[in-house]
Write a structure and sequence with these properties.
Layout lengths: L2 H4 L18 H4 L4 H7 L3 H10 L2 H16 L3 H4 L20 E4 L2 E15 L4 E13 L1 E11 L3 E9 L18 H37 L1 H16 L2 H10 L7 H15 L1 H15 L3 H8 L4 H9 L4 H24 L11 H5 L5 H6 L7 H21 L5
Antiparallel strand pairs: 1-2, 2-3, 4-5
Helix pairs in contact: 4-17, 5-17, 7-8, 7-10, 7-11, 7-14, 8-11, 9-10, 12-13, 14-17
């Protein structure tokens, strides 16, 4: 057939080659089940697949999930009460768990302790009494407590033997179990970061959204305020704001005051990140379409722009929370943050301010271990989330 035969007649309708049947996309390119699974997956599912490959981030997330779940049942997990004193075991060292005694399997147990007072340095010296084998009890009845301050109970995950002791992390100067106080302190130290990040996100997204969406004078004024706040060193600013809180305030009000201070200081970096994102996204076609449909700026920012970089916000949160935990720990350690009867990891570390106490009783530094582990876990989790935020990479 010549090329002239394929041309339509002059003045006649154009020829077309559209098939009358339904179009089957699989007939064009045959996809394997694995390819089809990837091509049809949502962005959230792609992020989850990418995140699972970051094993360290996954295990960090599991560890943090375990810690945050534990604060719901702190009373059940702690062997002793928050303020239970053992006057016969002041500054007692950590007891080790054993399984075998004299070559025979006994099960989890600790040895009893004997002590004498060293008259040279006035230090209590404890030694294991191998004749006292104190088997641990699990899901047992021990000291009575009020679950979340409401319901009476005496059921614990693990208890010492009858008339025995269980000080896995030693005791402090008042004979209180350090491990039990660390478990109770997690409730304050972990939640203070969550409350602080909520305040920081509300301020950062709102103020940064205004600067990035409107621009002009509003953007210039907000950026100058942020620059002034960021030029002030964080630690002195924490100390100044914490020092102005009246000493007559109740510990609960001080707790919320510290969270507000941490949230008010940490929003500037997030605000700048939100501003830079909105400056790029506000020129997109879907934003213009929302404006033409009469959507208000608040709705455009909250429903259309912010979800566009929500993965970035999640990664930012995982990095910001440990900063707030460190801030509370530093303030409480310096005596300007939380105070008794509220207990946090920072409050527990005040026992270790004296170098002589640390040299004689090094187990008083145990509360710093969960602080380090939580900060590392949040950083690893943040790395995994940041990599997963770009599932197509």
């Amino acid at each position: 057939m010549s090329s002239s035969d394929q041309l339509p007649p002059v003045g006649g309708p154009m020829m077309h080659y559209v098939r009358d049947g339904d179009f089957d996309p699989k007939s064009v390119e045959k996809l394997t089940p694995e390819q089809e699974k990837v091509y049809l997956a949502s962005q959230l599912r792609l992020m989850w697949w990418k995140f699972k490959k970051h094993k360290l981030a996954v295990w960090s997330g599991v560890f943090l999930l375990f810690l945050y779940s534990s604060i719901l049942i702190s009373e059940f997990l702690a062997p002793y009460g928050l303020n239970s004193r053992h006057v016969d075991f002041i500054h007692a060292p950590a007891q080790s768990i054993h399984l075998f005694h004299e070559g025979k399997f006994v099960g989890p147990f600790v040895y009893g302790m004997n002590y004498k007072l060293n008259m040279e340095n006035l230090k209590r010296e404890y030694t294991d009494d191998k004749t006292k084998v104190q088997k641990l009890r699990f899901f047992c009845r021990g000291e009575e407590y009020r679950f979340w301050g409401k319901w009476k109970s005496n059921v614990h995950l693990v208890c010492p033997a009858k008339n025995g002791t269980l000080f896995l992390h030693g005791t402090d100067r008042l004979g209180r179990d350090v491990l039990s106080r660390m478990i109770y302190g997690a409730r304050i130290s972990l939640t203070i970061g969550l409350i602080g990040i909520i305040i920081s996100f509300v301020l950062g997204i709102s103020i940064g959204g205004i600067a990035g969406y409107y621009g002009g004078i509003a953007d210039m004024v907000i950026q100058r305020i942020i620059e002034v706040l960021q030029s002030i060193p964080s630690v002195p600013l924490w100390l100044a704001l914490a020092a102005i809180m009246p000493v007559t305030w109740s510990p609960l009000i001080v707790y919320f005051g510290i969270t507000i201070i941490l949230g008010l200081i940490d929003w500037t970096g997030l605000a700048r990140a939100v501003r830079s994102k909105l400056l790029a996204l506000r020129e997109e076609d879907y934003v213009l379409a929302a404006q033409l449909m009469g959507a208000k700026p608040g709705r455009i920012i909250g429903r259309h722009l912010v979800p566009g970089f929500m993965s970035h916000l999640i990664a930012t949160a995982t990095i910001t929370i440990p900063t707030m935990i460190l801030g509370e720990t530093a303030l409480s350690f310096l005596g300007l943050g939380l105070r008794a009867p509220i207990t946090s990891w920072g409050v527990l570390l005040t026992e270790a301010q004296n170098i002589n106490a640390v040299a004689l009783y090094p187990w008083l530094l145990f509360p710093v271990v969960p602080v380090i582990m939580v900060i590392l876990a949040f950083n690893f989790l943040g790395d995994g989330l940041r990599d997963a935020a770009d599932p197509y990479k």
